[in-house]
Amino acid sequence: MTAAIAFTAGGAAAETLRMGVEAAYPPFSYINDQNEVDGFEREFGDEICRRAGFDCVWVTNDWETIIPNLVSGNYDTILAAMTITPERDKVIDFSEEYYPPDPSAYIALAGAGEEVRGGVVAAAATSVQAHYIVESGATLVEFPSWDDTIAAVKNGEVDAVLADRGFLEDIVNESDDFVFVGENLTIGGGMGIGVRESDTELKAKLNTAIESMKADGALNAMIAKWFDGRDHVY
């Protein structure tokens, strides 16, 4: 395992686990007013570290390079609302699922019709939604971050955005500019913590912690807190 060794204030050795996070995808993760990583995955990750006996350190990284920089050793895990897919699993490994498959949805400017789903559609680069847009026959425009996709539809650069509905709900609810267009889609599986394929011991420790959170209800409680009462998932 590649986690570094740090020392706590009490002098006991504790393994430091560097958690790679995009921190630009609320409510999963974002930077708060105190310039700290916040959100569901921050709370979840801190609890995982506590149960697994790690000292968590949070490392922010752009979405486009988040997998290559895990492989190169910039951090030890990816905790960034990453859907487990066969393509990604060829490059890195994943813990067991900590968040179920999240429906994807399209949003567009108010007044748009369902035809925009087949037009020019934005998604974050390398996301499962980007792959789906290409397969659907629509024109894909990729952006480095999800915030960039929202700006693109607002300024008319694209017709719509396809993203996780959990991310889009606050955007639609807090602005009269955007509406959901058409039905939800199920793309890919649930979300897992990404690790290097060689880090089998780390993966086992993470899985044990996740399983304990599912068993005692802690994970369900966190999901309900951050996602408008969605509960009894596990």
Commentary on this structure:
The protein is 32% helix and 26% strand. With 234 residues, it is of the alpha/beta class. The chain has a five-stranded mixed sheet, with helices on both faces. Strands 1, 2, 6 and 7 form a four-stranded mixed sheet that branches. Strand 4 and strand 5 (37-38) form a beta hairpin. It is globular, with a radius of gyration of 18 Å.
Summarize the topology:
Elements: E1 4-7, E2 13-21, E3 24-25, E4 29-31, E5 37-38, H1 40-52, E6 54-60, H2 66-71, E7 77-78, H3 86-89, E8 93-94, E9 104-109, E10 120-124, H4 128-136, E11 139-143, H5 146-154, E12 160-164, H6 165-173, E13 178-185, E14 194-195, H7 200-215, H8 218-226
Parallel strand pairs: 2-6, 2-7, 10-11, 10-12
Antiparallel strand pairs: 1-2, 3-4, 4-5, 8-14, 9-12, 9-13
Helix pairs in contact: 1-7
Domain Ionotropic glutamate receptor C-terminal: 16-229
GO molecular function: ligand-gated monoatomic ion channel activity
Protein name: Transporter substrate-binding domain-containing protein
Task: Please tell me the overall pLDDT.
Answer: 92
- Helical fraction: 25-40%
Main beta sheet: 5 strands, mixed
User: What is the CATH domain class of the largest domain?
Assistant: Alpha Beta
Overall strand count: 14
Order of helical and strand elements: EEEEEHEHEHEEEHEHEHEEHH
Strand-pairing-aware structural class = alpha/beta
- Overall spatial form: globular
What CATH architecture label of the largest domain applies?
A: 3-Layer(aba) Sandwich
CATH homology group of the largest domain: Periplasmic binding protein-like II
- Count structural domains: 2
